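Methods, example record. To illustrate the input and output format used throughout this study, we show the complete record for Acetyltransferase (GNAT) family protein. The sequence lines were provided to the predictor; the line carrying structure tokens was produced by it.
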Amino acid sequence: MTTRLAARDCNVLGLSVLPVPGGVVDEIVVNTPADCAPADLVSDLRAEGGRCVAITRADLHHLVDHTTAALRAAGAALQDPATTAEAVRLLLGADSVVPADAETDRADDGGHRAVVALSEGTTLVARRGWAPFTEVELARVGAFGEVLRPNHDTATAVITRTGAGIVLRTGTPTDAEAVADLHARCSARTLFTRYHAGLRTLPRRWLHRLLQPPRGTTLLALCGAEVVAIAQLIRTADPAEAEISVLVEDGWQRQGLGTAMIDRLAALARAAGHDRMVAWCLPAEAGFARAATASGLPVAIRREDDVLRVALTVRAAVTADRDQVTSIPTQK
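The corresponding predicted structure is encoded as:
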């Protein structure tokens, strides 16, 4: 394989070999010239007996050994628990990592699905299409979970522009009354902006779906025991895209709370394998677009059928330079 890569003027920057039943999985990081097509690399590797070949663009994080990568992932997760799922995704090279309660398919998928228990009541499900997870990788992520176990609380504190302390955490069914009270305190205008309907109080039958959406995650903002904002990240039919929504109580608006929740949703979206988040807003609704812009994420707004489509890019595209860095996982 290296001889064929050298013939195409490719420079091998890194190689990892992971044993699996019946063979090994190699991950080769190479620097390729501009005229080297991914299809040519796939053909060369298959000609040497490689199978399950996949190619993805790599960044500098791929140019370090796995021990360094694991330490960096653990450090990021300890510093900000909101990035734990994204750290697990990077550590395993997974396509997506989502909370276990958001997982609908419980099939093992021949080793392409891994369950990561981080602490009691906190479990993530990782999926990878190009190759099954190896025993070495599962042991590595198991050790990662042991490091994080003392820090199992995934709540994050943020400070508003007025200096108030707010806690962001995922919602649970026990928050039903607090979420109902939030909606009761919101003005009719704020509720109409969020639901695009003449809603004055929240129907009780909606509470369970709000707090445990079948295809996503609900995020709450709390001041003490009082819920002052709620946001959701919902998977769509397009794997690259997730739909989001944010509701902030009237008295807490324009304090940076919406932006903080969008930042947290972006971390969850990246970990779930999404490239962008999309929100649908009324043309006169400037609050969400303002909060989205303040998040620092690339924002694109266009009008569709009398509503605004606000798209936020959460996974940066890699620009094509003359020399490309490519990561090639292949099983043989």
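Annotations derived from this record:
DSSP finds ten helices and 15 strands in the chain.
The longest helix spans residues 257-271.
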